[in-house]
Fold these 4 entries.
Entry 1:
Amino acid sequence: MENKFSKIIDANRDKIQDWTKALNDQGQYNSTRFRKDTTVEEIAEITDRVAAALGDISDIAIKYGAYKDTFDNSKMYLHLYGPSLIIRSNKTGITFYLETDEIGISLRTHLSYIENANYMDDNFWTSILKLSDFGIFELEENEFYGNETTKKYGNIYNSDKSIIFRILRNYFVGVAEEARDIISGNLKISWTSEYSIEDILINCCKAFKALYNLNYTLWKVSDLRDKKDNNTAGNKRFGGSRGDDNIFSTSVR
């Protein structure tokens, strides 16, 4: 274990026991959801403890990344399997969700600026595949182009084996159809009860950083383009000009 993570684990040793109890109670409730002897008060108490655990874990993940950004993780919503903590980047506007689900706990986000995929290099796509290093990785697709659109592209919709292929398929179809919103799906990393809370905490820190960097790289293309457009508009007003058109640097700041 890296020294940095050893320090994180040691500093949160007492909280880790509370998180374990809260998440186990949520898991047990999810598996016996239709039991009539679980009171509304008991459900609310479990929800509060799980929400607090998710908030603590997200605070640690944000601190670990040392981002030049700030985040709002003060909001959540309830879904079928418990709380979903909403983590929003104030710099990019991109949203992440840390939540309990049917198999345990998961972290997910979608590629908000997927329209900039054509500017991404091989390292970007390799980084997506490496998300499987942090847990159970999947591309969760909840949105689809209409039947008339998918029929036009025949066999490319007959295979779903490759995550990268599915992302690029949606991108190219969206571009070809001049879709207002290009579908990307959710990048989701999950952890079951087979993972210890310590392992979940460590992998959540790593996964959050990887997901943030992927989204940041896409967002930065639009950010630089917007800045160039604003500067161009300003230069037209004041008669100046800029000679640098190489705007697509995507390194994380």
Entry 2:
Amino acid sequence: MTLTKINEGLTVLRGDKIRGGLKKLALLEYLPQLNHTNFAYAGTVFGSGGWALATACEELGYKCTLYIAKSKHTPDWIADLNPNTCTLVWVEPRPVEHIKSEIEITRPDLYMLPLGFDDPAFIEATAKILKNLLSEQPHQIWLSALSGTLARATCLAFPETEIIVVSPVKHVGDCGHAKIIFAPEKFHHPAQTPPPYPACPYSCAKLWQFVDLHTPNGACIINVGYK
């Protein structure tokens, strides 16, 4: 993981430089706590959770099954899945909550992870990693939010920092004490103003249009990951 300086006042935490992204680092600490070795996750092609889980399970020697809603868009990370440790199941498009509920009934042999990994233990693991990666507390932090899990982890790690989240969806999850801005693009539409570094066009890239490039006090962008 590296920090890239955009200018004197702005840096980017580059989760895109990690295979699996920033969330994989937290999953490597979180999954062994669950005392299971075969996991399931419901998601979409526009999120990063499935890829993070797949790469974490590969490194830990676990297995996982990803239930992903079909879409015209196919992200590059799909081709990076290891078939020895990850099974990909395409399902008909519908809310991920419905996909998760159905799989919990039909596949009781799998440990179904919460949407967005929304679990206090995962949030604590993420906060710990963020504090280690950002040894100097930023004056301001920017990130994208869907479930709000990463936002709450950031709030936990840096309770005194101004945290601003940009949500690509209208109904965002609990984001702690963070200020919320809603991106103008529809969720399934890419960012109109992409950043000068690789970022998911459906989530993290959408915050760039709002960032003050001339902040004098030191701001940091958390880029979750992209492939």
Entry 3:
Amino acid sequence: MHPLLVHTRVEVPPRGVQDLTVDDGLVAGRDSLVAAGQALTWRSRFTSGSRTAIPLSATCAVVVAREEPAREDWHDRLIRGLAHRLAGELTIATFCAGGRDVSAPEEAAEDAELLASAIDGLGRLLADLEDTQTPEETADRIVADAVGTHLALVGAVADQQVTVRHGAEFTVHSVRSVSADMTRSDLEEARSRIGLPWPAQAGTSVGEELGLARWCIAMQLRGHQMWCRLEGDDALVTDLWLRHL
């Protein structure tokens, strides 16, 4: 397969595969369109089936038949940074707790506290990384992060609802948030940041939670999809297409 350029028709990011197109004379399969749409939504390399898409701009992604070497994405740096930091904490804490003179009770207590903190952090990280949750528990966590991401991006909401539709291959969880004071233009800007880490209402600030971005890798490994759209002039809607496992 030759590299294929996929473009958005109008909406950025696309609301679904219907918003995507390729150059005249070319044909794109559904895997190519899904991969491109997800890459543009997450602003990150994304694999769907046998196709991998790499965003070139806000409106265009290149689709290839297999994953090719690419620059390190933000989520790769995030995971590597967490692993290195936690490993360092464990190493230092273990050394301190085991190597200090027991005759210095204040230092020993401080070292033990540091070790306990590092072990607790390791446990929480492993709980997040290991696939120990049932599909239903994982779905609940993804939806909860979608709800939190909406609140971070929209701020004050007049109404927020989660609806569920069951299909043959997917269960679609739709998070709908009606803004209390944002204009449609503001909501479009918020929609464009739905897949970015640490979402915040002001695009130049950093939010308190990682948000939906924590699921970028997990969703592509499980064959899930995430699409975002507006309803009317005041509602932000995120559709989570969670594949049956």
Entry 4:
Amino acid sequence: MKIVLLVVLFILTLPAAATLQELDDFAKEMLKKERRELEVWGKGRGDPEPERAWQRAEQTAKANQSAEPVGFGTIEWASPPEALESVFNAYETKNHGRERAFQAGYSIGDAPVTVDFSYVDNKLARIFIWFERRYLDVVSEAFIEKYGKPSRRSGDIMAWSWKKVTALIVGNNPTGNALTSSASLTTAEYSQYLEQRAKYKAAAAAKDL
């Protein structure tokens, strides 16, 4: 019940049309809260090392995970946009600075989905998948079948983590549109790019003060 209330409260604090980064931040914040909840639960159970309850649970889940994803379908990480042409009927949605993005329709099992392919320096670095919430079970089962049990779970948020890739499924995204659920595969390279971009924006904003 506490987790549900936290999710609801967090959703109310987000804008009506959240960006992909805000959705990731939303999921990660919920997982942090779940970690604190697990530590409190461990203390209540008399765990001699309650602060490690989360770590032990994560290690157990990671043992059941598959090998690190090398891309999406037959499209591998770091491949150029041209690799999409023979597999997906994708169209370009963004071309700004170091980043380009393409979008295509696809299906995961019986679930029709929309896939965003993000490139940094013309190298595939991230996959973001949108779908209607009624297909959440279909997509979740497909991810679990392919990647094993999630290393972290909080309500309808699931996360998998490897050395260079992180996967997330968020069942109830505060996006303000019909595609209310999402799944993503994010490389370390894309995360580093986002951090660099955030620092650049912060520095630029500071100069304007």
